[in-house]
Structure formats: C-alpha cells, structure tokens
Design a protein that fits this description.
single chain, about 550 residues, alpha/beta, six-stranded parallel sheet, globular
Length: about 550
C-alpha cells in the first residue's frame, strides 16, 4: 500500500492510489460509461475539480432534456497529488470539495452522485479515452516576482500545457475540448492547438483537434451555482465544427433561453473578452484609491460621495475599493494580457499603461490600511509593536469564504512585520491556508510572505470563530470585510468585549456617523479608508466633552 497520503481540510487522510489501482479504476469507468451511453447520454470529462471544475461538473451532470431525462454523464478528473487527491473520494461520497455559502452546491453534488448517478470522480487520465467532451478547468496562474509590479511576472502555463498534451494523447479525434480556464489571449490557437495537433500527428491522426474556449464568470457566495448555470456565456471555436459543437454543448447544460450565448468568431476574441472584462473592473476600483487618499486628507467622506454619484444611472457601477482587491481573477487577469502581448504575440513595444498600473495599485492598497492601524494606535499613545490587532474578515469579499489574494492577507502580513500580534475572525473561513501552509500555498516559493519580514510565526495564525472571544483584550479592531455579522456590531458591545477603548479602523465604509461618534464618546480612536470626515466628528465629540 502506498505510504503517501492526501489530507482533506478536515484532516481525513486518503492514501494515494498504487499502480495496480489504475487498471481496476479504468474498468469501473468503462462499465459506467457503457451503461450511460446505452441510455443515450454524452460522456463528459471535466479536468480539474477545484473551485470552478467541481461545480461545473455538477451543473453538467444535472442537465436534462425537455422530458426531465439526464443527458450527460460526467467524470470529474483530478491528478492524484498529495495536495489534491482528497477531492476525488469526497466527490464520490457526494460531498463538495469546495466550501460554499450557496446551499445549492452541496445539494447539486449529492443529487448527481447518489440520486441521478450522473457524476463520478477519478484519478486516472485513461478516463479521457471515454470522453465525447472534455472540459478543461486547470489553473493558469500569473506569478508576480515583486509586490506592486505586475510587469515583473509571468504566466504559469506549465500545468495547462502538460494537461493539454495528456488530453491529446488519450482522447478520440472527434472529442470536443473546451477550455474554460482564464488564459492569456492567444492560448487556444497558438499554444493549445499546436500542442494537441503535434500529438495527434504522432498518433497518426490526420484531423485537427476540435478546440473551443468559453470562460466562466463564477461568483463565490450564495449565487455560486447560478453564476454558472443562469448567467451569460461567451464562447468560440477554433473552426466552424468546434464552434457548432461548443454552442450545442453549452446550450444543453446552461440556461441559454434566459441568458443567451454570445458566440465570437475566434478563441482569441473570447479570451480577450475575459481579460478586458476583469481589467475594466479592476481599473474602476484602482481609480478610487487616489480619491480615497484625497478624501482622508481633506475632510471628505468618500462613501457619501460615491452614493451621491450612483444616483446617476450612468455611474451606478462605481465601487468603493476597500482594503485591496482580492479573488482569483482581478489581481492577475490583466497581467495575462500584458504577458501575452510580448510572449505569445511577440511585440516588443509597450502599449499597456492603465491595466498594469491598476493591478499594482490594488495589490498594495492594503498597506495603507496598516498605516491607519499604526496611526490610530499612536493617537492613543500605544505603539503598534506588540499590539493585539483583531482583523474582522479574512476573505476577499463579503459573505464568502474565499481567501485568495484577499486584502486582509496583506494587511496581516504588514502588521506582523511592524511587530503587531494579529488575530483574525471570519464566520465563513475555517482555514486560512495562505498562513497555515504558507511554505507551499498557493504554490512553493510564491507565498506573499516573501515580501515581508517576521512572517514565520504567522503559520500559527488560526481563524477564530467566536467573535466575543476574538474581541477580548484587543488593542485595535479592523473592519476589513463587509460580512453581515459585522454590519450591526454595537460600539458599546465591542468596547465591553475588548475590555478597554480600542483603535477602530473602518476599511469598507461599515460604520455610519452615529457609530463613529459613539466610538469616540467611549474613548476610542477611529480611522477609515476614504473617510476624512472622521476627524470632524472627533473634534465635535472632544469639544462637547470639554464644554460639559
């Protein structure tokens, strides 16, 4: 038996498969595929059952015809690595490998595995031999070498390129390969196609691979499933046949009646659409950083300014940036476009100004939040060094448990570098792997810890679940994420729990003026990103106290 184990987030150990397990596993899949084909169902292999792939696999497995009969049989395939193999046995139990606030995720996976029996998971690449359609959900990350300088980075294409070669080695010539991964524009036609065509020729296959691209717009949180099934999609194919096949496939599994497909002529167009879409949003957020600083220094409440502007319908999408822009897409996607221009398309000039600058601003905004913590404590006569600083919120956006590239991570790292003792509370996050496994997560040598000193002790950081206990003894409280449980926190209760007046830092416009005033009345110090009017409230409270 193998001595290597894959450990789930809950601590369950799963031995990795031995050599003899592969033959048995493929026999199981062959039998299931034959049974499903006899029922008139397409066999779909989803490569990668992570954040996108696991739920996409379930959405496809749940597809039905007009009479309510399942039309697809899905095999979710994950490479049997120590880091990820645990996802396979969990999926086969009908359990989601992805923690989600959307109750539909668990329900959907359980139904497809146990009731419909249209979903299974495997570790063997031989599953690809059975596929009518292959959906590729393998990560294509962008690795940054410097903090705040996206130009000094590169697309990490190795895993995707290796997967495409393996897919080409196994699939039937007429299988459709749909790349869902967000990739550098040009990848499908100038990277994937040559790789797969070369393998096809080695196999004696004269036809070209049927390649298509359609990016996902997955949103974590309570709309997780709907953001896949009930949302607009853009797609394209490398030729007419591939385009027709991907339109037919997506029309089978998505709600295209209410959310019609947008079909583009070439994959580079759909690839570019995803990059421009996310770069646009990142730029709006970065734009407000400088106005946030302006507001702080000139007595302006940027939250009120934004709300006033949003009354105008043409500006309703203006967004307050908070303490940095996280999630998997916005911090990196523009970098994929800049990198592709030089390294896929071969241009040497520099046409990009706004896109990389926006990413750089967003990546470093949280550093300013740490300065506000320092300044608030200093105003109370306390040094930030050795201060107990409670960060409320680890995830990158409200009411989700996704910590990828969150502004809170950067804030914690800078606070630790400054000598503070950070702690964290988040009702949606059980493990903050960026700290607990910072030597290997998100990948070896690419943890953000490399940009800061004094980081080793953060391996011991754990997400506290009891808010009252988390508050006890805190010197500073940072409202870092707009989680619902934080919106109605009463200042009197916070100070009672901490046991002393505290420095309060509002990173996301959570506190209204009445709460800000009450914190000052209780002897606290308050700072806020973009909230320059706070000093005016402080002066009024202090003047009122003197007058009494």
């Amino acid at each position: 038996m193998s001595m290597l184990y894959s450990v789930s987030p809950d601590g369950e150990r799963f031995p990795l498969p031995d050599t003899e397990d592969y033959q048995t596993e493929f026999a199981r899949l062959e039998r299931l595929a034959a049974e499903q084909r006899a029922l008139g169902r397409e066999v779909v292999v989803v490569v990668g059952v992570g954040f996108v792939g696991a739920v996409m696999a379930a959405v496809v497995a749940d597809a039905e015809d007009a009479e309510g009969n399942p039309t697809k049989f899905v095999i979710g395939m994950q490479r049997p690595s120590v880091r990820s193999y645990w996802k396979i046995p969990l999926l086969n139990r009908g359990l989601s490998p992805v923690k989600s606030e959307d109750p539909k995720v668990d329900e959907l996976i359980r139904r497809c595995v146990h009731d419909k029996k249209t979903l299974t998971a495997t570790f063997t690449y031989d599953a690809l031999k059975l596929a009518d359609v292959v959906v590729v959900d393998v990560q294509c990350d962008y690795l940054k070498e410097d903090l705040g300088n996206v130009r000094n980075g590169r697309a990490d294409m190795a895993a995707l390129e290796q997967s495409l070669e393996i897919i080409a080695q196994h699939i039937r010539p007429d299988a459709l390969v749909l790349i869902e991964t967000t990739v550098a524009p040009g990848t499908t036609e100038q990277v994937a196609y040559p790789i797969m065509r070369k393998v096809f020729r080695r196999r004696g296959i004269e036809s070209d691979p049927l390649l298509a691209h359609s990016y996902e717009r997955v949103m974590p949180g309570r709309q997780y499933v709907d953001s896949i099934r009930n949302f607009w999609r853009v797609c394209s194919g490398i030729n007419d046949e591939a385009r027709d096949r991907v339109v037919r496939f997506l029309s089978d599994v998505l709600n295209v009646d209410e959310y019609p497909l947008t079909v583009l002529d070439r994959p580079i167009e759909s690839e570019t659409a995803k990059i421009v879409e996310n770069s646009f949003r990142a730029t709006i957020l970065a734009f407000l950083h400088e106005w946030s600083l302006f507001a702080e220094r000139n007595g302006v409440d940027l939250i009120k300014v934004i709300e006033a502007i949003k009354v105008r319908p043409t500006h309703s999408n203006i967004i307050f940036p908070g303490p940095g822009i996280g999630g998997y897409c916005l911090p990196k996607d523009g970098g994929l476009g800049v990198w592709a221009y030089h390294h896929i398309h071969g241009f040497e000039d520099d046409i990009f100004r706004i896109t990389p600058l926006a990413i750089d601003i967003n990546d470093t905004r949280a550093l300013h939040a740490s300065q506000l913590v320092r300044d608030a404590l200093r105003n109370m006569g306390r040094p930030v060094a050795a201060a107990e600083v409670l960060v409320l919120g680890a995830s990158y956006r409200e009411d989700v448990g996704d910590t990828r590239y969150s502004g809170s991570e950067l804030l914690v790292r800078r606070l630790a570098e400054m000598g503070a003792e950070p702690r964290v509370h988040d009702p949606y996050v059980d493990h903050w792997w960026e700290f607990e496994k910072q030597d290997e997560y998100p990948s070896p040598e690419y943890s953000w810890k490399r940009f800061f000193r004094n980081q080793e002790k953060l391996k011991e950081l754990r997400v506290e679940k009891d808010l009252g206990q988390a508050l006890a003894g805190a010197d500073a409280v940072v409202f870092a994420v707009r989680h619902a449980p934080y919106l109605d926190l009463d200042p009197d209760e916070v100070v009672a729990r901490t046991g002393q007046p505290v420095a309060v830092i509002d990173c996301f416009g959570i506190l209204d003026d009445a709460k800000i005033r009450r914190y000052f009345e209780l002897g606290c110090e308050v700072k806020g990103l973009g909230r320059g009017h706070v000093k005016r409230i402080k002066d009024e409270v202090r003047a009122g106290g003197l007058g009494g």
